[in-house]
Amino acid sequence: MIKDLIVNLKVGADSDPATDYAISIASTFTAHVAGIAFAYDPVIPPSIMGGIPADFIEAQRTESTKSAKAAIARFEAAAKRNGLAAETRLLSATLAGAADQFGRMARRFDISVIGQPKPKEAAPEEFITEGVLFGSGRPVIIVPYIQKDALKLNRVIACWDGSRTAARAIADAMPFLRRSKAIDVLIVAGDRGKGDEIPGADMGEHLARHGMKVDVKRIVAKDVDVTNTILSYAADSSADLIVMGGYGHSRLREFVLGGATRGILGAMTVPVIMSH
Questions:
Q1: Neighbouring C-alpha atoms within 13 Å toward the C-beta of 249
Q2: Potential cystine with 17: which of 36, 121, 147, 181 (Cβ 3.0-4.6 Å)?
Q3: Which string of DSSP letters, residue by residue, matches 6-46?
C-alpha cells in the first residue's frame, strides 16, 4: 500500500507533469504527499570564477529561489484542490547536492516521483533520478515530459529477465499491480530457448496467486534492441505503466546507468516504475 510519496517539483516551468501525476497517485491511494523544490546554486565554470560580479551571482540565487517558491505554490494549490495531506520543503543545493539530498529523503517514503527531462535539455531531474534510483533503496516513478493523463492502470507491463533488480521492481510495484486491470509479463529474448520452456511463466504464476490477471508475453529477436522492443510493445498494447529494474554499475564511487535503463529514461512515452 502507498501511504506516503515524495515528488521533486520542477522549478522554472509553467507546468509540471510529475507533480500532476504524483497528485493523482496520492488521490488514488489516499496518501500523504511531500513536494520538494530546490533553489539551485549558480553553475559557474572554475575558469571564470573570479570574473563574475558577486551581485550577479546573488541575483541568480534570488531568481532560483523565486522559481522554487512558485513551484511550491502550484503544488500546494493542487494538493488543496484534491483534499490531500501534503507538506513542502524548499532547499538550496548544487545539482549534485540536490541528487544526494533527494535520494536520502526518499528513503523515508514509499515511492518517489520525478519528471523526465526534455530531450537535449541538461535538467536537474536527470541527476536526481540517478540519485534516487541508486541511493534511496526505494522505487521511483519517472514521468514523461509529455504526460498529460493522471494515473491509469488499465494495462501494466512488468518487464522480466529473471534478475534481482527485475524481481525487486515487481515487488515494489505490487500496490499498482493489484489495482491494474491487466498485466503483461514481458520477456525480451535473443533466442527461442527450448521447445518445452516458457520463460517468465513462474513470475506470471506468482502474480496470478495474488489474484491478478496476467499474460506472459515473450518477444524473440536476434540482435535485440531491448529499449525499442519494450517501448514498441507498450505503444502497441496501449500500456499505461511500465515496471522494470533500474540497472547500473559503480565506477569510481559513481553509478553509471545501464544501456537499457538509460534508453528507456531517454525515450519513454508512459510512466515507468524503476527499482535497483
A1: 4
A2: 147
A3: EEEPPSS-S--HHHHHHHHHHHHHT-EEEEEEEEEPP---G
Alpha-carbon distance 165 to 186, whole Å?
15
Tens-binned pLDDT, residue by residue, of the chain (276 aa): 899 999 999 998 888 999 999 999 999 999 999 999 999 886 665 555 555 666 766 777 788 899 999 999 999 999 999 999 999 999 998 888 999 999 999 999 999 999 998 877 767 888 898 889 888 999 999 999 999 999 999 999 999 988 899 999 999 999 999 999 999 999 987 665 544 445 567 899 999 999 999 999 988 876 668 888 899 999 999 999 999 998 654 443 344 455 677 778 888 899 999 998
Residue ranges per structural domain of the chain: 4-143, 156-275
4-143 and 156-275: identical CATH topology: yes
CATH class of the structural domain 156-275: alpha beta
Q: Left if phi > 0, otherwise alpha if psi is -120 to 50, otherwise beta: which for 59? A: alpha
**Candidates 3.40.50.620, 3.20.20.70, 3.90.550.10, 3.30.2130.30; correct CATH number of 4-143?**
3.40.50.620
Cell readout for 68 is 522554487
Helix (H, G, I), strand (E, B) or coil at 98: helix
pTM of the shown model: 0.88
Q: Which amino acid is at 61?
A: R
